[in-house]
Amino acid sequence: MQRQRLEVLGEPPARAQPSADPGDDLGAVMVESHGQSDDRGLFDVSTHRKLLDAFGGYAALLADVAARFAAWDAARKQVEALRNAARTAAADADYLRHVVNELSVLAPVKGEEELLAGERAFLMNASRIAEDISAAIGSLSGDRGAEGTLAAALKRLGRMGDEARKAIEGPESSLEQAFALTQEAHRDLNRLLSQVELDSGDLEKKEDRLFALRDAARKYAVPADDLDQFLQDCAAKLDSIDGGGAKLKAAEADEAKARAAYLESAAALSDARKAAAGKLELAARLGKAIPLGWALDEKAEATVDPRVAQKARRLLPLGGTRESGSHKGYGLGILVEILCGVLSGTITALNEVQEPRGHFFGAINVASFRSIDLFKADMDRLIGELKSTPPAHGQERVYVAGEIEFETASERAEQGIPLLSSVVKGLRQVHNSALRLRAAGRERRPERAQALV
Hints:
Layout: E1 3-6, H1 26-34, H2 45-56, H3 59-106, H4 112-124, H5 126-140, H6 146-158, H7 162-165, H8 169-199, H9 203-219, H10 227-286, E2 295-296, E3 302-303, H11 306-312, E4 314-315, H12 326-342, H13 372-387, H14 403-415, H15 421-440, E5 449-452
Antiparallel strand pairs: 1-5, 2-3, 2-4
Helix pairs in contact: 1-15, 2-10, 3-10, 4-9, 5-8, 6-8
């Protein structure tokens, strides 16, 4: 172990200020500034707030502030999202307008490409198809065609006498149906032939339309059948951009209202805390009662008088009373005294002399007990289970040991350490006292305060 000396302007802290300055307890100030003890480290603003809220009974007001802040925060995020969308949309607006204008002129229809492709393939073979249709018509027409043959057959049957008419009714009816169907097919083929000859001149138009659809599909990287949906989507986005200004203004108005509501509620809470702080300070100055179970008097009797408790210096362990678990707090307290005081050979809580103080730092080689990976996995699982536990009423989340201190350290490293006005005043008094000592040129004593590290 290595001992280090603590000096202020070359003097031990106990003698670094004139005794004529009442209330200037440099040791207490240094302990508080260092944050060695939770009961003295009052720099954490959240500690002040919790104390004042508990003292004033402001749980409902605090919940109202939290709810209004959440509403304001949600409104701010909505405004920011709309602004980001507006910035992104502004860059895309020209592109979207071009797409909508071009595709609106093209007016694509779902399924049109497939239809045009089929018509194009048909028209590209129009001459051969016309020859085949003409040949088919020739097979039906003329004396030797199907129509002439069927007509001749019906004519022959019609010449038969009455004695045979009844026997040929079935075949004659079938021939009449066949003749009618053949005539209908002949007419359809003639119409088709005329259409082929007429549409053959539209091949160029159909190809132009088909190629225009395919060019647009390649340009916008969407299937030709999806061009109509792509047009609708772009039009909807463009409408959203054009109407985005109104939405943003409405969201900004909502955010302003939410902010005003939050500030109003926060101001009410702040005023209430100021009132509670005044009452709390007055209670402390007047020595008003402390909660039962915090301390004992010189006769080891429970006391609610803070002055008696301060004089007796008999603070009860964690839990206060046995019914509240003080026997466990007592055991934990003794364990700390053994490790920090007895083991290190420094002071314990029962010593009258308050120096030197000892600290205990221990390390456990986890690998001597089990696998490091398994230990980490179980530890992560335990922390996860603790963090997933529903928080108590009025609390935002469940913390694990050291988490608050880690977050506070990060915050302090970035934003600095806030100081109470009383602490600033005390530090200035210490500074002024030290300067007076130096100016007076007092003889420095060899006595030194020892701090065990």
